[in-house]
Input
Amino acid sequence: MKIRIIRTNDKRPWTQPRARNIGAENASGDVLLFTDIDHIIDKKAVDFGRDFKYDYGRFYRDLGVLEDDGSFTQDRNVLEEWGISKERGLHISCHTLSMFIKADVFKSVGGFREKVGSHPTHDDGNMKKKLSRGGFSKCPNNERPTIYMIPNGRYSGDKNDNPHGYFHDLCR
Output
């Protein structure tokens, strides 16, 4: 895999949708993968994307963490160290824009709306409407792969509680 760093001189305020559009413009593949920095994608999900036969599709999400040795775990004791109560289930709702999408479909709907809202990382909820109204084939729920999200304060019951100092709370 080759990684290329893209630089821009764009002076507009940074937004997550703008960053995703810039990435899509510079991508060379037929299928785009959009995710967040706090998501863990396993080989099964990557393989699903390589053989992607739909126009777009979202993921199921569960909580999980990487151990110091790089191994993945959903061990309840480890998750409790991250602030997740033993009573809380592992499943979390689908992230609207963590998805596979065919590059030509993404281009045809005009990418993400780059509106600056109250929070610079808010996603373009309009993408969901554009895709559902555009007649594109959506990956059925029973075929969606699972990705994993590193816990943050939002899922431990206190949006400001972030015992390991990761990701979403960095912008607070």
Notes: The chain has five helices and nine strands. The CA atoms of residues 34 and 81 lie 28 Å apart. The radius of gyration is 17 Å.
